[in-house]
Amino acid sequence: MGFFDKLFGSKKPAKPEAIAVSLAKGAVGAVATGRVEATDAIPDPVFAGEAMGKTVAIWPDEGVVYAPVAGTVSASMPHAVGIAGDDGVEVLIHIGVDTVEMNGDGFTVWCEGNTHVAAGEPLVSFDRDKVKKAGHPDIIMTIITNSDDYPALAKVAEGQVKAGDTVITTA
Fold first, then answer.
1. Which single residue of 3, 11, 63, 143 could bond 126 by disulfide (Cβ 3.0 to 4.6 Å)?
2. Ramachandran category for residue 45: left, alpha or beta (phi over 0 → left; psi -120 to 50 → alpha)
3. Catalytic residue ranges
4. CATH code, 27
5. What pLDDT tens digit does each residue of the chain (171 aa) get?
């Protein structure tokens, strides 16, 4: 804790603990605990139409997003994180719909670009109430941006999932 944190208090929340994740080769884990939404019911036409790649969406039970694969963070913004998976899968995680308009307010990023993360490592914490008060759905999309590289890609989860459960298989 630095001098200014002691003087004014730190507003950054405590970093969540990593979760234990054991994924099979070619598996992508759930980024959060919550309810999987049907793709065509995602409240955004771009995500619902899978314009950026095959998408799994989760209505979260809490405001923590975990790494769905082991890999290198390729992009890190308050509302979105990209990961180049160690096995070649490219994952974009987008928190909420139109949350870019919040300019990071209510989001705490725990990862940086060009760093390696393990599956189950916390990437972002966000204040679900703040997102909702700003008028945005807090649904979290996991998009496989290089879906065309995986002809056997399948979404394998429905209903309630726990963070780290397999939601997509690429082989």
1. 63
2. alpha
3. 94
4. 2.70.70.10
5. 455 555 555 577 899 999 999 999 999 999 999 999 999 999 999 999 999 999 999 999 999 999 999 999 999 999 999 999 999 999 999 999 999 999 999 999 999 999 999 999 999 999 999 999 999 999 999 999 999 999 999 999 999 999 999 999 998
Distance CA 91, CA 108 (A): 20
User: Collapsing DSSP states into helix, strand and coil, what is residue 10?
Assistant: coil
C-beta of residue 92 within 8 angstroms of C-beta of residue 80: yes
| Residue ranges making up the domain that contains 115 | 22-169
Within 10 A of 133 (CB to CB), how many other CB atoms are there? 10
**What is the rounded distance in angstroms from the CA atom of residue 28 to the CA atom of residue 60?**
17
- Number of separate domains in the chain: 1
For residue 7, is it within any domain? no
The whole-angstrom separation of Cα 121 and Cα 22 is 12
Residues 6 or more apart whose Cβ sits within 8 Å of residue 23: 29, 69, 119, 164, 166
In a domain, 31, yes or no: yes
Q: Is residue 9 part of a domain?
A: no
